[in-house]
Design the sequence.
């Protein structure tokens, strides 16, 4: 069943058009990577789906219903959660309060404070600390946990690996299996191509706001990817 | 002993200044709204209490049963219907709009009630006092106001740090865009925030009007006192606001003891000195 579909999705920052007629289709339970160079429109795509940017209603279909132009908080209640680029934890809240705030929508589902702590035992030990006192990797785990607290059907992850040490990135990606194991559909946006392709079954490659290539991650033409990525 | 007495009276005076400041501090802390009409809402609350009191025969304290919910609703509706539209354009639009509201309230009150001064009458408690050893005499009413200020701030601390609503307030204050991504309806939350700010504005207005004469133009002075208390205490710190109010009150009391015409001036000078020495206040919490 198709969970998320975009139909000629365009997005703008003021007069600047950042996305041009993007057509993407994501099945329930899939893990899909969106890759592309800096400025290709990956983050813009996630922000449009999450409702931060304006879009035509029919341009974004979630579970068969048009959601383009809805506010971000309405979209959270429908079951889409975003792990924003740079984590964006609430600085004056403790780690646990950040997680509880993620559950503000009170959507029912498998994820709870207890389950998030089982997924990230280190975060449970640090739960009383203010969020800024955590290391980058711990903050990323808390940000993922916070998004899971809304029990999303679709989890959008923006640059999970940004600014983190390779060993930490490995730990975080290792947890993705437990998340998709719950039936959650995941969209990974990454500049780290190999990391994203390892963790997903299909990928879309964006280039300067346009869809340049779409293929399964197991069997694709490296040369075509290079061309799509760099626009050569 | 004379001076100790002066300082104690000044501290108690600070209680009403802290109450003036709570609503201002809340609306700035949560939604970065600088409410220029805040002082006029304090005065408006006093007039609402006056009308209710005259209409029903209730004493001013009892009118709070009506004034508090009325001001909550007014705050909620005003944020939802008007001020939310001003918040995305920086600091200036809300300043201009609340300045306009201030003009409307002052002139509306002038039209409706004339320029006469009024006072709310609460009876014997206004002049009651307790005598402490050493010849110090403390007014029961200022003591009551001070206690209300402490209870109000204590109550807000509980709200902010122990409830789901308070957690949402703090998150929105930190990062409104990300809070929206967590499923919080910022616009609705802001409306509740101004409603809650107005609850404390209503309490401050009624308590102030029992002690002091008021007229339609009394608002701007209360606004300045509230601003000074908030800034002395440091933006975003509620207990700091209480300290700010107390510092203002003590400065005024000491100034008045030296020369009765120096009372208001001494408060402003204390404020300016602290602004020079500690530009971000004594207990700053808000970073931007």
Sequence:
């Amino acid at each position: 069943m198709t969970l998320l579909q975009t139909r000629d999705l365009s997005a703008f920052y003021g007069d600047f058009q950042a996305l041009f007629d993007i057509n993407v289709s994501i099945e329930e339970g899939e893990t899909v990577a969106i890759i592309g160079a800096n400025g290709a429109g990956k983050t813009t795509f996630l922000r449009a789906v999450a409702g931060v940017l304006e879009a035509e209603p029919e341009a974004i279909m979630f579970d068969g219903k048009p959601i383009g132009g809805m506010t971000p908080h309405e979209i959270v209640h429908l079951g889409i959660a975003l792990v924003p680029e740079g984590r964006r934890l609430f600085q004056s809240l403790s780690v646990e309060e950040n997680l509880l705030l993620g559950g503000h929508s009170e959507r029912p589902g498998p994820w709870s404070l207890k389950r998030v702590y089982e997924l990230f035992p280190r975060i449970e030990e640090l739960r009383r600390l203010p969020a800024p006192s955590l290391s980058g990797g711990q903050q990323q785990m808390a940000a993922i946990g916070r998004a899971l607290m809304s029990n999303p059907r679709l989890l959008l992850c923006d640059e999970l690996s940004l600014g983190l040490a390779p060993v930490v990135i490995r730990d975080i990606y290792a947890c993705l299996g437990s998340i998709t194991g719950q039936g959650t559909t995941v969209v990974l946006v990454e500049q780290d191509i190999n990391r994203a392709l390892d963790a997903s079954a299909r990928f879309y490659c964006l280039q300067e706001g346009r869809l340049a290539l779409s293929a399964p991650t197991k069997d694709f033409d490296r040369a075509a990817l290079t061309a799509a990525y760099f626009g050569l | 002993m004379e001076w100790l007495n002066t300082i104690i009276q000044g501290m108690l005076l600070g209680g009403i200044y802290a109450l003036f400041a709570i609503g201002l501090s809340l609306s700035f802390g949560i939604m970065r709204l600088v409410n220029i009409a805040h002082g006029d809402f304090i005065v408006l609350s006093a007039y609402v209490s006056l009308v209710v009191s005259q209409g029903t025969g209730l004493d001013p304290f009892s009118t709070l049963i009506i004034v508090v919910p009325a001001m909550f609703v007014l705050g909620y509706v005003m944020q939802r219907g008007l001020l939310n539209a001003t918040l995305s354009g920086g600091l200036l639009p809300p300043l201009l709009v609340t300045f306009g509201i201030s003009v409307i309230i002052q002139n509306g009150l002038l039209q409706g009630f004339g320029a006469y001064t009024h006072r709310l009458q609460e009876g014997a408690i206004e002049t009651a006092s307790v005598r402490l050893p050493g010849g110090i005499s403390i007014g029961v009413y200022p003591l009551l106001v001070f206690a209300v200020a402490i209870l109000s701030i204590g109550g807000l601390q509980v709200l902010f740090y122990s409830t789901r609503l308070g957690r949402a307030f703090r998150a929105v204050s930190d990062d409104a865009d990300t809070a929206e991504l967590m499923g919080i309806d910022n616009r609705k939350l802001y409306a509740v925030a101004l409603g809650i700010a107005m609850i404390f504005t209503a309490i401050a207005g009624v308590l102030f009007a029992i002690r002091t004469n008021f007229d339609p133009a009394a608002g701007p002075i209360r606004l300045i006192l509230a601003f000074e208390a908030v800034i002395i205490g440091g933006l975003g710190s509620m207990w700091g606001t209480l300290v700010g109010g107390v510092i203002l009150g003590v400065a005024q009391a000491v100034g008045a003891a030296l020369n009765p015409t120096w009372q208001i001036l001494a408060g402003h000078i204390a404020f300016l000195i602290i602004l020079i020495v500690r530009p971000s206040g004594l207990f700053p919490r808000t970073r931007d």
User: Anything to note?
Assistant: Chain B has a mean pLDDT of 94. The longest strand of chain B covers residues 129-132. Residues 19-219 of chain B form one domain.
